[in-house]
Amino acid sequence: MSTSSERFIFEPSPEASAGSWAEDWQEIEKRAAADPLAYWEEQASELEWSQPWEAVLDDSNAPFYKWFVGGKTNIVTNAVDRHITGPHKNKLALIWESEDGKEVRTFSYFSLNRDVEKMANILKAMGVRKGDRVTIYLPRIPEVFFAMLACAKLGAVHSVVFAGFSSDALSSRIDDSESKLVITADGSWINGNVFPLKDIVDEAVKFSPTVENVIVVKRTGTEVHMDPTRDHWYHDLENLPIARGRCETVQVDAEDPLYILYTSGSTGKPKAILHTHGGYMVGTYTTLKNTFDIQEDDRFWCTADAGWVTGHSYLVYGPLLNGATTFMYEGGPTFPHPDRWWKLIEHYGITTFYTAPTAIRSLMRFGDAWATRHDLSSLRLIGSVGEPINPAAWHWFHSVVGGGKAPLMDTWWQTETGMFQITGVPSMPQKPGSAGRAVFGQVAEILDEHGNSVPDGQEGFLTLKNPWPAMARTLYNDEQRFVDTYWSTYPGRYMTGDAAKRDEDGYFWVIGRTDDVIKVSGHRLGTAEVEAAINSHSAVSESAAIGLPHEVKGNAIHSFVVLNQGYAGSRELTEELRAHVSSHLSPIAKPDEIEFVNTLPKTRSGKIMRRVLRARALGQDEGDLSTLEE
Ligand code: WT7
C-alpha cells in the first residue's frame, strides 16, 4: 500500500454519524475490549431465544469453541418469524428483479414466510429432517431464499453450491455432504443466454447414492429431462396438499449446524466450512447493524450470489435478522449496458450498496457517464468486500457512486469467519485502502513466522486473538484439518492465511493471501483445484497454477503445463485447456494464460515451487533455491 493513500483520511459528515452512531464508537470499542463476552451477550439479548443460554462461551475444548451453550433458538425464528408477529409484518423483506428487467417480485415478511413454509412443508414431505443435508444449486432468484430458510426452519443443513460450478465440482460437494435432496432450476440467465443447470445436476447426481429427490424450479423454460422417480417440478409440488398450511420452526440448540459452505484451500479438496445457528445469527446480525448502520427505511443491496458466504451472511441472513429490506438482482452489472446496476439503484432507491472491488474496477473503465446520468443520491452508505480495494477504485466508488458523501465501508472477513472481522462503523474515519479496525470484541494481531508480534507498519501474518460467535465450528467430517489449517501455526490463535500491516492508529492494511489460494475477481480459488482440472485433460502430464496481478480481476490465473509425449503446445490446445477448466471446475477458474513448459520447478520431495514460477514471471528475485531439485 502506498503511504500517500494512508495520508488521506475521510472524515464522515455529521449525518453519517447521526443514526445509531451518535454514540461514540470509541466508547463501545473500549467497553467491548474490556469484556468481549458481555458485549456479545448484550447483542444476543436483542434476539429471541426459546431457551436462554447457560454460558456465553465454552472454550474448554478449544479450538472447538461453543457459543451460547444450552440456548435454544432457530435463525429463522429471528430472521422471519419474529417479524410477522410485529410491526414488520407488511414491510418488504425482499425485492427481486429479473435479468431482463421484465419481472419484479416483492415479498413482505408475511409473504416471505408463506413461501418459506410452503417450501419447508415440501421438504418435510420428502423426508428431510433435522440434521439432514440439502444441496442448493440455484441462480439468483427468490427461491434461493425460500430454500435456505426452509432448510434452516426444519433444522436441516443447507449446502449452497454456486450455480456456476461444473458438474464435477457439484458432484463432489453433493457426495461429500451426503445430501439426500438437491434443489435446482431448469436453467439460469447469464447475459441473455441460458446456462443449463438441470443438465449439470443430472450429470452430477448420476453416481450419487444419497440423492433421493431433485426439486426443479422453472426459470428459463428450457427443455430438460425429468426422471419420474427422482425429479419434481417445484410448481407441481407447490399445488399439492402437502405444501399447504403452517410449518413450525424447529427449535434447535445454539450449536446445531445451520449450513456447510465449500471453499478453496491449499489442497485440491475444498474445505467444508460448518456454521451453526446461534453464534452465526448473533454475529451476522450485529456486524451488519454496526457497519451498515441499518435503518428502518433502508433498502440494502448486496450484489453477492447466495453461493458465496457474502450472500449467506449479508444478502440473506444479516438483512432479514435486522428486519431490513434486502434487494436481489438476477443478472450481472453490464448486461445489456454498463449502467444496469446504477439504473437499479436509482429505480429502487437503494440506500446501502455492498459490492466487490473487481466490479468497481470493471465498471470504472466504462467511464463516469454511465453512473452520473443516474440519480444515485439515495445511497447513504456503500461497502466493499472480497479483496483489497486499491485507492483509485476507492476514490471512484466514493466520489462517483457515493457522491462524495456516503461513507465507504471496507469489510475484511472470510468464509470461515462468517462475519466481518476488520471494518469500521460509519462515524469512524476511513482510510482508502485500509479495511479499518478489528470489530468490537476482537483483537487482530500481525505476527512473524515465529509468533512474535510485528511492529506497526511492518508486514506479517494476520491473526485473530479472540473467539467470535460466527466463527466456523469445524470442517465437516474433517476435524483434524480444521485444527491443522487454522489453529496449529499459532496455538490458541486463528491464522487467517493473509498478510497484512497495522498502522499506528490501529488500522489494518490487508495485502493478500500467503497460501496457495488465489483471489480472482474476488472469488477464492485453490491452485491445486485448477491444476487438478487441467491435469484431467488427456494431453496433460502435470501443471502448476499461479496468480499474477491483473488490473480488473485483482489476480489472474497463469498455468504452466507439461504435456504428455506425442502432444505439442498450440493455440488450439491452449483454448481447449481453458475450456476444459471452465467445464470441469468453473468459468471463473479459467486461466488467462497457459504456458507450455518442459519441466516444473520442484523441491527434492517433489512439491511444485509455485513461488519460483511467480518470481520468474514477475521478473523478481527467485529467493532461496536451496530446496530446488537438480
Ligand atoms: C479472503 C477470504 C468473506 C468475504 C468474501 C470473501 C480476502 C476478503 C477483503 C477485504 C482485503 C479481503 C482475504 C481473505 N478478502 N475481504 N475487505 N480486503 N482482502 O470470502 O472467499 O472466504 O475469501 O478474501 O484474502 O482471506 P472468501
UniProtKB/TrEMBL annotation:
Tell me which InterPro entries the record gives: Ac_CoA_lig (IPR011904), ACAS_N (IPR032387), AMP-bd_C (IPR025110), AMP-bd_C_sf (IPR045851), AMP-binding_CS (IPR020845), AMP-dep_synth/lig_dom (IPR000873), ANL_N_sf (IPR042099)
- All residue ranges annotated as the AMP-binding enzyme C-terminal domain in the record: 529-607
Entry's Gene Ontology molecular function annotations = acetate-CoA ligase activity; AMP binding; ATP binding
> Cross-referenced Pfam families, in alphabetical order?
ACAS_N, AMP-binding, AMP-binding_C
Domain named AMP-dependent synthetase/ligase: which ranges? 88-468
Q: Which SUPFAM superfamilies match?
A: Acetyl-CoA synthetase-like
Which of UniProt's keywords are assigned here? Acetylation, ATP-binding, Ligase, Nucleotide-binding
Organism of derivation: Flaviflexus ciconiae
PROSITE patterns listed in its UniProt record: AMP_BINDING
- Tell me, what is an example of a GO biological process annotation in this record? acetyl-CoA biosynthetic process from acetate
What sequence ranges are listed for the domain Acetyl-coenzyme A synthetase N-terminal? 26-79
- Which EC class is this protein assigned? ligase
Nucleotide-binding is among the record's keywords: yes
Coiled-coil ranges (or none): none
The record's similarity note reads: Belongs to the ATP-dependent AMP-binding enzyme family.
Stretches the record annotates as Disordered: 1-20
Is this entry keyworded Membrane? no
GO CC term (a single one): cytosol
What is the protein name given in its UniProt record? Acetate--CoA ligase
Q: What is its EC number?
A: 6.2.1.1
